[in-house]
Amino acid sequence: MYTNKLAALALVGGTLLVAGCRHDVPATPEPDPCAGAKANLLSFRFLENYGTPTPDTAFTKQTITFEGPGVPYTAYEWQIGADPRPFTQRKFALYFPDASVGPLPVRLIARRPPNTRCFAKDDGVDTLTQVLTLVQRTQRRAPVYGKFLGANTDAPRDTFTIRVFSGPGYQTPPDPFAAPYDYLRNLGRGCQSPYFDIGLTWRGIFFNYGRIDFGCLYESGTGYLTTRDSIRIDYSQFESAQNLKRVNRVFKGRRVR
Fold first, then answer.
1. The domain containing residue 219 runs over which residues?
2. How many Å apart are CA 138 and CA 109, to the nearest integer?
3. 212 close to 241: Cβ distance less than 8 angstroms
4. What pLDDT does 24 receive?
5. Considering the domain boundaries, does residue 16 fall inside one?
6. Which of 11, 84, 193, 201 fits as disulfide partner to 214, beta carbons 3.0 to 4.6 Å?
7. Is 80 exceeded by the pLDDT of residue 224?
């Protein structure tokens, strides 16, 4: 009996000791469903003639696409400068003639389901205004002109330099009164044809070069500036002059001049 009492006392004392040394672990807080939420999610972008994006400037004499966001937005109301026409599509295009120079304010009012859980006064209506500046092509000062050092993404260590530039026509002899051409050199690597003229927008290029000469392999694609000094070009070419299977490639480069 005495032994059993001692054992019971020892058990109680041990339990109290353990209880006295235990540290309470704070409960993990529930994630905040409103963390990172924004009262106004709205954004839209401008796309030039070949689908190349530009943040704030574009050439005249081309079609500009206005592209709004998708989900959660469900309705759109655009105001394009002084144009009185209603535009209610998520994405649509307008042609701007040469005389349409200067700043063009673009306003988008878009509707979505209200987020009253995070913003008590949210009515589900967001508004954003951006300005697109239109310039004439005769200025010949597109920022996409320049030299870019980079590589194809399938061979990142095999670097080379491409060049986008404006120059006289390739006729022999050149016509001094002819309008200059826009050219692309060294894409794919080694393509140095004097005939590789391209379509050019303010920040982008389009090319469909149907020749196999001067190191070229029937290159075709589009490219655009992703930042002021970075370019991305998605293109395809023949695998070789003997193998006419087309290969898709992506060139990424940084401006060196």
1. 146-255
2. 34
3. yes
4. 64
5. no
6. 193
7. yes
In-domain check, residue 103:
yes
Q: Are residues 121 and 150 in the same domain?
A: no
72: left (phi over 0), alpha (psi -120 to 50) or beta: alpha
User: Which of the pair, 165 or 170, is modelled with greater confidence?
Assistant: 165
Angle at CA of residue 89, ends 88 and 90, nearest 5°: 125
Residues contacting residue 183 through CB under 8 Å, at least 6 positions apart: 163, 164, 165, 166, 167, 196, 197, 198
Q: CA-CA distance, 138 to 166, in Å (whole number)?
A: 12
Residue 209 CA to residue 188 CA, distance in Å, equals: 11
**What phi and psi, each to the nearest 5 degrees, are found at residue 114?**
-65, 145
- C-alpha angle 237-252-191 in degrees, rounded to nearest 5: 40
Cα separations in angstroms, 168 against 125, 177, 186:
51, 9, 18
How large is the average pLDDT for residues 238-257?
95
| Same domain flag for 102 and 157 | no
106 in Cβ contact with 66 (< 8 Å): yes
Encode pLDDT of 66-90 as tens digits. Answer: 999 999 999 999 999 999 999 999 9
* Integer-rounded Cα radius of gyration of the chain: 31
Q: Are 128 and 151 in a shared domain?
A: no
Terminal Cα-to-Cα distance of the chain (whole angstroms) = 97
